[in-house]
Structures are given as C-alpha cells and as structure tokens.
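Dear colleagues,

For the upcoming journal club I promised to circulate an example of a predicted protein-ligand complex. I picked one with calcium ion because it came up in last month's discussion. The inputs are reproduced below in full, followed by the predicted structure.
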Amino acid sequence: MSAAAHGGGAPDWPLHGHGHAEQRHSPLTSIDRSNVDRLGLAFEFSDFVVRGRTHRGNEATPLAVDGRLYFTGPWSVVYALDAVTGERLWTYDPGVPGQWLRKACCDAVNRGVAILGARVYVGTLDGYLDALDIESGERLWRADTLTQRSRAYTITGAPRIAGDRILIGNGGGELGVRGYVSAYDTDGRLAWRFFTVPGPGDDEHPELAQARKTWSENPAWDFGLGGTAWDSMSYDPALGLVYVGTGNGSPWPAGQRSPGGGDNLFLSSILAIEANTGRLRWHYQTTPGDSWDYTATQQMILVDRRIGGRDRKLIVQAPKNGFFYVLDRVTGELISAEPYTEVSWAGHVDPKTGRPVQNPDARYGAARNIVRPSLFGGHNWQPMSYSPATGLVYIPVLESDMEIRTEPRPFMPDSINVGAAVDDARSRHAADALLGERRRPPSSRLVAWDPARQREAWSSLPGTWWNGGVLSTAGGLVFQGAADGGLWIYDADSGDALRRIETGSAILAAPISYEVDGAQYIAVLAGFGGAPKTYPPGSAPAKYRNLERLLVFGLDGDDVPLPPRVGPPEPRAAHPQRVFDKALAARGSALFTVHCARCHAPRGTPNGYPNLWNLPAPLYDALEPIVLDGALSGAGMPGYADVLGPADVAAIREYLLRDEALYGRARLLE
Ligand code: CA
C-alpha cells in the first residue's frame, strides 16, 4: 500500500475511500476546531447537464490527485477540474442512452471513479467499464461487464483498485438480476468473475456448489436471485484479499425466492476474495434468508487495533439490517455484533454461531407487518468514516420502519420485481400529514460508534430524513452534509455541532479533503436524487431548485450562493374532463405504483422529478408518445411500449387527473 493510500500526511484523496482500507479519514490538519468559523466557499462547479437532460442526484466521492479533481455526475459523466481554481480540464460523456433508465431502480446516479497510474476508470449506468486517459479524458478502452444485456443490470458504484486489477460490480437486485463482481486487467481483459448466487446452468466456479446447497432445488430463476455487489469493496494488499459486500435477494420474500427455505448464499454477505485468483477465502452472511432488502453492500472499513487483549486485523460494517459487525478480516470470524439503531427483525446475533436470532414475527405474508429498519436500512450507501485518533466510526444512521406484505407477481422485464409491497414510514408520514394524523416521522442521526465496546459514544440531534456521507479529519472534525441543505461540522470527540453551512442544496454524497500548495480544502457534491424521491417538506432544498453542484470550501472563503428559489406551483389550466371513471383510475394507480413510482414521487410531495400532478393541461392528452414511444427519452424519461399499451396510459392519465380533482391543490410544501 502506497503512502498516499495510507494517508500519512499525503495531500491527495487518491482512492474512493481515501485508502484501500476505506476509512475516509483525512490526515490533514490545517482546518481544525480553532478556525472552522473561517471556512467558506473557495469555488463551485455547477455545469453538469449533458445533452439537455434533467437534473439528477449526485452521489459521487471526488478523487483529488496532483492538484486535480476527478468525479462523476449523473449519467456516469466524468469531470476533471483544476482543484484550486475549479477550471474544467475535460469532460467525458459515455453516452448512456436515456432508455437505459428503465433498468435503474434509483435514478441515473454514479458514486465515482477510480484512478490507477495515468488512467481514470468509470463504470457506466449501461454496464461498461471505461478506461480514460487522465490527461485528456479520451477513452482508451471499454469492457462490457454485463453477462446479459437484456437483463436490468446497471452500474452506479465506483470501481475499486486491487493491485493491478480494476474491480466492478453492478446493480439491479430489485429488477431481477443475478449478482457478480468482475476483475479486469489494465488492458481491459477479464481476469476473473465471481457470481454471488447460483445460476440455472452449470456452476461457473467451485464456490457455487457450496452456495447451491443453501437454496431450493428450483429457486425463482426468472428473478435472477439477486445478491448484486452494487457498491462497496475494500482491499488489504498484505493479505491479498478484496472484500465485497453483496445485496438482497430477488424477489424479496425468501418463500417466493427459495420455497424450500435455506440461507441463500451469498446474499447479504461479506465475501473475502483473493484478488489474484478470484477464489473465495471466507464469507460471512449478515442476514440469512433475507426478506427485507437488507443488503450488506454498505461500506466495509479495515481497522487494525487491539480488542480483547489481542492485536487484530478487523473489518467493520454497519449494513442495512441495523447491526454493527466486527469481524476478523483474516478468517471471517465474528468478534461481535450489536444493534447501532432500533432493530425488530432479530433480537441479537449469537456470538457462538455468528447467526442472528431472528424474530419469527418479522417474517411476513399477505397481511401487513411492521419491521424495523425499513428497506432503506439503518444505514444505506452513504459512506461512514473511521478516525484512528478517536477510535470511533461515524455512521450516517437512518431511523425508520416499514409496513411490508407479500405481493407475488410474474416476472416482468425492466420492472421492479420484488414480490412485495412496502409502505415506508416516509410516504406514510406524507399520507398522515394529508389526513391530519401524527405518527413518529422518519429521521436521521450521525452516530459516533465505538467498535471495540460496541456502543454509541455520541449522537447528533435527529435531523431530516436522509443524511449524507461522512468525512473525518486529523483536525478533529467530522463533516457531513444533509438533505436539509446544510453542511454540518462536528467536534470528532464530543459531537458538538460547531457549524452548519447553508448551501440550499440537498447533500447525500460524502465530502473529501485534500491539500494543494499548503492550503487544505473540503469538497462535496450536492444535488438530490437516487432512491429517496422526496425532499423533507419545508426544508431548504424544497424551496430552491435542485441543481447538481460541486462545492469546495477553504479557509477565508465566501458564503455559498443559494440556488434560484422555486416559485409556488404553477396554476394549471383546468382539464376539461369532469367525470372520472373510478375503476379506471384505480387501475391507473396500480400501474403507476409498478412503473412510475420508482422516479415520480407521490402527489403533493416535493421532488426533483417533474410533478405529474401539475403538468400543463395539454400534456395529459399527449402522454402516449412520451410514456409508450419514449418521446422524452433523451431527457431521461424512457418509453414503456414493451409493457404498456394505450389503454394503460389512459388509466394512468385517469388516475392523475382524478387524484388532482379529488385533492385539489393541497400541498405539503410548507
Ligand atoms: Ca435492494
């Protein structure tokens, strides 16, 4: 591991998690508790939009190397800037077709690039791994990472470097794919591929025989079975092991996926894979027989420290299921697991067997069941950080439950195929507000977790639903953006909130820190999108236009300019239709849930996507070419002619118009 990858005072942020250990802790100290009041905007970059597309979410971690910044925006577009002036050096647009968004669960987001030598690597939404010249941004080669282009595979994760290999997984679990991770040589040749679940054909590698024993004889092959490695990996060069987190099962209910039961390896697992050979050294499954979308794709941090009187090489993770895991990363042995948030699906994890003791009530059927955490997890993709100085892990925690029930349906290509229906607390809360009821709203907290004692050291006050990734620094600070538009700065020891910088833009991505010519900077991408479709009502981002921005802060900088304000909803000219067909509208509502709701938010909630209840009146009579033929696919609204027909569009239209007529202009903006 190079000095830069370890930190050690190096000025750069050269890898996704700063180093291969993914600690996301900067060794820089110029910005500290004594001068954090002087932090202000050094520069901003906001010229993200390519080919006239609409604004989308920003999830990337920028890399800072030799005085330059390299990062992705929506649609897998790569930007290179001067890290001091913000001047654009080059842009690379991989040309992702708008229609490919049909295959994406959660927006056209991307979480960043990898750099090895003089090349920048990016995984594209449509499944390619592209190698770019670091000076010019020109593409040197492209590898097709997809085993089946007809399936709903996407890439939103950042590639990782392990030795001279480039690793990339993919997404698509909710749409019905089979997960795997691929390792490429620097010339673009596939070195190895590890499938995370068995397939209907012969086993591609020996580990699948072991996995197959934990599935029914005839599992739901149509649905791909899931296990996608859509986000996190870390790497230990000394052990030669790459750690890969795998996703949930497809479909969600274990009983539909594998009717005979079983743990369903390697779903929701941490896999330790030999970087050279692609062979599995060990695995640890966090959620055997997952039925709740409890992925273990969340960030895995490598930590060396003394626990129980022994120096241990550890790997720690706070996956969606709500438990904080401490494992020996040499052997995979479970050292401890304790809940970092409220958990209802399991009482505890048995330290002897390493297995969770599941609450039988957490399994669900056709009747609704309330389970905590929600499908969004106690912690999602937003990266956490580990400070070797405080010994604490700083976790962006989400507090929410969900109502879930089975809803079996035949497999439908390029559609959400989860076999379950969910009301998460967020949308319930919006509905409650409409009905004048009050229930516990979903919220978020920054939790400083002591991994040795397995307990909370401090926690921030609850914030709005959805918070951002985390950076800690040797200056004794913790930085975290939030969906409320604030960049928060905490004292790493005490948790005191030292500062909140208003940006007017929802922040989900994690900040980084770098240094050029002795000056330290903090950089973070802003812009709302991805899985959470709605802003917190009343929050700053609901008041300002949702624009993609890279915000870079330094000492003695300026105030952050706020984006243009959003005006009151445009009064819509009344649609001439007055009498609505209730049954048709109900069918439209069901179709909307299946096909539209993964992007377009419920009526009345603020959202980065076009509000379908507030379209210009003539558009309601012109939906067919848009919805069926993809007339706006260039802007990112794909066509659905393969699964919907004119009668379906009429039903959706009836639903939109009837809903608006029933509820009038009631809004939850304030
Ligand atoms: Ca999932």
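Two points we might discuss: The domain at 582-668 is CATH 1.10.760.10 (Cytochrome Bc1 Complex; Chain D, domain 2). The longest helix spans residues 646-663.

See you all on Thursday,
B. R.
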